[in-house]
Amino acid sequence: MRFLPSLVFSLLLLLAPTVVRAASPLVITEISTIGAAEHEWLEIQNISEAPIDLTLWKFWEQKTNHGIKSYQGGNLLPPQGLAIIAGDAATFLADKASSTLTVFDSAWGSLAESGEEIGLRDASGTLAEVFTYPATKNKVIERRDSHAEPLPENWCERLEGDSAGLENDCGKIEELPAEPTPPPLTLKLSEIFPAPAADGKEWVELFNAGPATVPADFCELHDSHGKIASVAELNVPAAYLTVYLPSAKLNNDGDTVSLICNGATEDTINYGGSALPAPEPGQSIARETLPDGAWRLTAAPTPGGQNVVVAPISNKKRNTSVESAERRYPPGRVLVNEIYPDDALSAWVELANPEPRAVSLAGWRLRANTDEPVALTGTLAGDAHLLVPSLTGAINKESGIIFLIDPEGYTSEQVIWGSGDGTPEDNAPAGSRPGTSIARVFDGFSSGNAAEDFAESATPTPGGTNEITTLLSGIAPLRISEILPNPAGPDALGEFVEIQNISSSSQKLAGWKVAFDSRRPSALPEITIPVGGFVALNREEIKIALPNSGAELALIAPDGAIADRLGYEAAESGIARGRGGDGEPNWTSQPTPGETNIIAAPVHLPRPAIDITRPDSPGDPFIFDAGESWDADGPLSAYRWDFGDGLTAEGVSAAHVYASSGKFSVSLAVADAAGASSTLKRSLRVYKKDLAEEEEAVMEIASVKTSSNRTYRIKSKKKTTSPKKSPRITLGGIALAERGPLGAQTIPVLTETGGILIELPKDAREINRGDRLKVTGTTITRSGQERVRAQTIAAEPGAAPEPQFLAALEEAEDAPLLTLLTTEGTVIDKTAQKITLSRQGELDLKLPTKLKSRDAYAVGAEVRATGILRLTTKGERELAVRDGGDLQVLLPAPLPPRPGKNEPPISPASAGATGAAGGVLLTAGWGAALPWRRRLAELAEKILKRSTAQKGGDY
């Protein structure tokens, strides 16, 4: 069958109605969204008079085709027969232990309880049935009449149980009452505009963050005097509604605005005080983030759209005796890092600059509570600390506020501890003992939540990197016992962190957290560990992906103190880091999740290293050196070189002369005394200038004649040979991507021996990611890569394999081509179709043509990328991203630095300057670097050098 071009087919889908008449022979008759995705299922029925082969049918959801595969009962569905399509067939049959139903296995993210568009796509690729099912409310819904249209009124809801594999009866119980119950409210105040221009209107913007529609007149807006407006119906999801007030209701110099729904106050805001000043004409008050972010003044009102907070410049005379909470410097540019409260006038405050550039502190001030501010001078170097050794007045340990004030009089940051503002649950913890400080748990890192960022520490570090010492009595009751960062199988399934109870009583994990390096802490599940017991938590439970390249994991007690740390360097596959009987950490080849650790010394694979020196003169040899190779188990015993041209050598170093130019794959195999071996490959480009004599080939064209009957001899730079007929081959594998990322008619396929490119016939059916393929064709070579030109291709639906994690980007040079990889790094360069990542090496990402939100991947952002490792036409390796789902922003690009008032921007050359004056003390010993931010300094250096530096690749 000849398929329509993809563009025409897409247009036909867009023109199709939302609900199709039940002309399909196969229809959906029952839907269960109860529980997690693996417990979800739907029932289908063959309403025709002939059996249907479901081999190539698909379940369609979220604009995505989900393959279905027979799990029980075969692919053939008889007339009027019923079958189940399950999110996980094994789970469904476990839930229905005695079921003999025909069951098909599929996979989807999750079926929405609020209703969504789903359908069935037949073997020809046509959407046989597509409709939007009604909200399920955590119940099973059934189709009343399988031959009628799947309109909302043709569905009913069971109050209990289901009828999987049986005739639908809507539970044979009374229908739900027609009167709707009030929806769960997620309605919030978003922005307030009380001071319009002379001819403008006041307005209040609302934001609906939840799945439910808010009915008309269900909510009202009130000011300090009473009702000012009703709220019209607000649809979902993430919808804005701007309520324009018919007349001036809100006071310009201060008022209270409340959202009241069904008689209950859902949200309220007060403006006009010192914490949130009243806006001037044309300004608004908006939340920084929705739905529960802080309120800020903004000079850029956005009625009906996403809030944009732009700090306004006031026309009023500034009252310098009270500092506004309005921020004029980007948050985090300078941080209050540690506070030492003391009643005996020996209190001090430590500042930190987490950015790579220095900050001039001329005009900055530091104030404690309502005391006179202390003037700051000098320069705070990049990635460093600064100690303010004395403040005016005593600082109480139980509660207080520190203000950091910028040169224009605005509060750049404030840290409140204890009950300093009456809301201790949102503040840093109070000091409880003499000699303790209040310090950031992760030095120089701010999440914006003081309650999580700070802890009381028994080891103050004035001017140095914070070290939080636990304040628990005696030894902490829990410790990190074992970590497996790089399991032999998929990381997502095999990683674990093991926690051990070393106390004399059972311990609950509720309130405890874990974090690695400077990342945000993650709460542990509510599990009780018996005395001396262990619990192994997987990635889903700790919500942290452990980097294979190394990290330090911290166990954080409920009071915010770090109870234990366990670090590791680059982790080999299947090797765990665990504590032995003496409590000291060691690598072990026998991971024991949930059990007593067994420290079995692993046999480490040797790590080969290749250094290549080019010849100084034509005809001189290339020098190959393996002296940097090493092995953790002892000295290496054997070195074997393969120069890629058929010749080999032995030894730590070797010299080799190439007879021809071209690109060669050089490999080094090393072995240790225990017999363990590893191989490293490097790509080497040999140029004609490296050879003793330049190559020249002569090709005679005997039949080329001109009008003068002369015969010419034509010189060619390349020899030609008669093409050999490629043999016909058959192979099987898994499709790693659809057409597009690696060519309009080309797909990458993972076989038992590695990845290979398949060129599809022009009339081939669509291939989906994860399809199991059987291909027959001939081998060809394009751009130096072997591929298969398919003549016949058969496909069965399946799940795509898990990508392998690439910890260091330099490892891409040795990774197999045409494999699915995931990696992380910092964006250091960006073009329309490509971005470059940096982290222990560099790697280019090729972006899809239609990828949206490219602005999110700005220089300086940290991203996680998944894609196909391929070779470009220039012989360089890059990761071809398949779609937007393969890219995730882990950390947005940092805000650009803002110079102080009447002060030129600080250049990178002066970023390391230090200084001390007035009440500020900065010494080399106390100007400790912030390791977690050092990568930003490296990024800045790379960006400055990128225009002149030669990109890594061939030698």
Key terms:
globular; five-stranded antiparallel sheet; disordered C terminus; 65 strands; 955 residues; mainly beta; 4% helix; seven-stranded mixed sheet
Task: Explain how this protein is built.
- By secondary structure, this protein is mainly β.
- 4% of the residues lie in helices and 37% in strands.
- The chain contains six helices and 65 strands.
- The protein starts with 5 loop residues before the first helix and ends in a 10-residue tail after the last helix.
Itemize the secondary structure elements and their pairings.
Blueprint: H1 6-15, E1 26-32, E2 41-46, E3 52-53, E4 58-61, E5 64-67, E6 69-72, E7 76-77, E8 82-86, H2 89-95, E9 102-105, E10 117-121, E11 127-132, E12 140-143, E13 155-157, E14 187-193, E15 203-208, E16 219-223, E17 226-230, E18 239-244, E19 255-261, E20 264-271, E21 284-287, E22 295-298, E23 335-340, E24 348-353, E25 359-360, E26 365-368, E27 374-375, E28 379-380, E29 384-388, E30 399-405, E31 411-418, E32 437-440, H3 450-453, E33 454-457, E34 478-484, H4 491-494, E35 496-501, E36 507-508, E37 513-516, E38 522-523, E39 528-529, E40 534-538, H5 539-542, E41 551-556, E42 562-568, E43 576-579, E44 585-588, E45 611-613, E46 622-625, E47 636-642, E48 648-650, E49 653-656, E50 662-672, E51 677-686, E52 697-705, E53 711-716, E54 728-735, E55 746-751, E56 754-759, E57 772-782, E58 785-796, E59 804-806, E60 820-830, E61 834-838, E62 842-846, E63 862-871, E64 877-880, E65 887-891, H6 934-945
Parallel strand pairs: 8-9, 56-58, 59-60, 62-64
Antiparallel strand pairs: 1-2, 1-12, 2-8, 3-7, 4-5, 4-10, 6-9, 10-11, 12-13, 14-15, 14-21, 15-18, 16-17, 16-19, 19-20, 21-22, 23-24, 23-32, 24-29, 25-28, 26-27, 26-30, 30-31, 32-33, 34-35, 34-43, 35-40, 36-39, 37-38, 37-41, 41-42, 43-44, 45-46, 46-49, 47-48, 47-50, 50-51, 52-53, 54-55, 54-57, ...
